[in-house]
Each structure stands twice: as C-alpha cells, then as structure tokens.
Design a protein that fits this description.
- With 149 residues, the protein is an alpha+beta fold.
- The chain has one domain.
- It is 30% helix and 20% strand.
- It contains four helices and six strands.
- A six-stranded antiparallel β-sheet has the order 1-2-3-5-4-6, sandwiched between helices.
C-alpha cells in the first residue's frame, strides 16, 4: 500500500522536472532593455555584445548593463570575466548613439592585454582589455546602502 503513494509522488516530481530547463542556454541571446534602461544588442560574434549608453551614463552604468546581459542572456557564471573589446565611442550599429562593446569570450590577445593591466578599481570604459567578473559588473547596478542616522 505504501508503494503506490510513493510512485505517485515520484511521477509528479519527474513530470515537474521535465519543465525546468537543464544545462546551458537553450536559445540564442537577444537584445534586451536592462532594468536601468540601457539597450544591449548581441553583435553576432559568440559572447560579444554592445551596450548603448544613455545621456549621462558613466562607465558604471555600462558595466552594470554588461553584467545584467552576461547573466540573463549569456548565462555567464558569476566568476566569468567580462572584457571591454571596443571603448566607449560612436556605435557601429546605431548611428548617432554612443556605445561600448564587451565580451565574455575574449581572444587570447584580449585576455593577455587584460591580464597585463594592474589591479583595476575604476569602472572605466576607455581601455581595451579592462575586465571584471560578471558578479562584480552586475553588483554595480545595486543602489548604495542607506544607513539610518
């Protein structure tokens, strides 16, 4: 008698597990509008994407958008590095806009360039090879902690 309820629970669990995506990404990354309003477009190169700047955005906002895209669309692990491929400047795909291009799949040359940089503290988007972990870039999105008086 006890076997029947156990089999019913096992069958229900197995059917639910079939609904949960397994493994890596099951679809190609697509353009998104981040929580802070930046548009991010895949460039067509594996792991590479363009972050469009909004008026007044600094490097932190572009790194935030890069971290959000790397997590949500590329399913990058928190310790995966995001590298700056093309510094902030005119967008190659959107005339009249400013952007920066990032990747989570750096070429050996780009990775070596990033490795040669000293410890990075500034969230700049001017030096090719600048890189941060996905979690670091994404954590920039968080508002500062408001400490009560």
């Amino acid at each position: 008698m006890r076997l029947l309820p156990c089999l019913a629970i096992l069958a229900a669990t197995a059917s639910l597990a079939a609904c949960v995506p397994q493994g890596g990404p099951t679809r190609a990354p697509h353009a998104i509008l981040t929580d802070h309003g930046n548009r991010v477009d895949p460039t067509g190169n594996p792991g590479e994407f363009e972050v469009l700047a909004r008026p007044g955005d600094g490097g932190a906002q572009l790194w935030c958008a890069a971290g959000e895209f790397a997590q949500s669309q590329l399913r990058a692990s928190p310790d995966r590095r995001i590298y700056l491929v093309t510094p902030r400047g005119p967008s190659a795909t959107r005339p009249g806009r400013t952007s920066a291009v990032f990747t989570v799949m750096p070429s050996p040359e780009l990775q070596a360039r990033g490795d040669a940089m000293s410890n990075q503290m500034l969230l700049g988007v001017r030096k090719v090879g600048t890189n941060f972990s996905t979690i670091h870039a994404y954590m920039v999105c968080r508002p500062p902690i408001d400490v009560p008086d």
